[in-house]
Design brief:
Layout lengths: L1 H15 L16 E8 L3 E8 L18 E6 L2 E9 L4 E7 L5 E7 L6 E6 L8 E10 L5 E10 L7 E12 L3 E6 L1 E3 L5 E2 L12 E2 L3 E4 L7 E9 H4 L2 E3 L2 E3 L2 E7 L1 H15 L19 E13 L2
Parallel strand pairs: 1-20
Antiparallel strand pairs: 1-2, 2-5, 3-4, 3-6, 4-5, 6-7, 8-9, 9-16, 10-11, 10-15, 10-19, 12-14, 12-16, 13-15, 17-18, 19-20
Amino acid sequence: MKRYYNIGFIAILALASCQKEITVNVPEYKEKLVINSNTIVGDPFSISVGKSIGILKYNALQDLYVRNASVVLYKGNVPADTMRYDNTVGKYVSDIIAEEGQSYNVKVNAAGYSEISASTIVPADVPIAGIQRIRDVRLDIEGQKLDEIRITFNDPPAKGDYYILSITKSSSDTMNGISRSYSCVYTADASIESVYDETIDQNTCLNGDALFMRDALFNGTTKELRLYVNGSFLEPTIMFGQEVRATLVLMHVTEDFFKFRKTYQFALDNEGNPFAEPTNVHTNVKNGYGTFSVMSYDEVEIK
């Protein structure tokens, strides 16, 4: 027994003697401008402007907003407005309304940064045509009762339409800000895509905060989508002293925003996981980061 401990001690010393400190010279990071604009069809444009920062300088308490930028909005290739900074919302705002089918460009400059630009084409407004809730349709793998939500909408005739759906509960107050909750959503619909590009079946738990779908299988038709959600989640609850009901949101988005939101969700789901594959969040901003897009948005309460 004594010999066993001596051998173990020698082995530890041998391993310890193999350690070597290596100094890694991290190249200096060049900061870039970042924009975020998800204007809704029929609303005036608004854009938040910030900056990226190197990981060694990052601090969660840092203010990364850029308030002294020049933000020029173009309708097509014609300058339409120099957007003004509104301190009450922390964004650059315009009186220009996002028109369906119109192309827009934006150029952003700020002292100490390279110019960035982005362009987008406004998608058609696609409202929810109908919604129906059927209670206790099936069980999940744990035996919990699931309600069926049937949603219909009319897909435009042109190919290449992209959609993001969500089923959530949201509430807010002055002390706690916005509180948002969601549940697993199940479906066997072949049009729904996984964030991880995995095969989806009726027992796959999908994040109810964002379901991704494109119109390759139903282009130009009336689409009926059947989703299954825990019935108890769909019942009214009290949040911050308010009665809150679940809502279903349908967003008709650009391809760029679809890719941005999907890759962002992947990165968010794997935050802090050392074994996850790294991902580059998609951007349509030249020489910078973020997203410049317009979407149609419709929201209905689930009763």
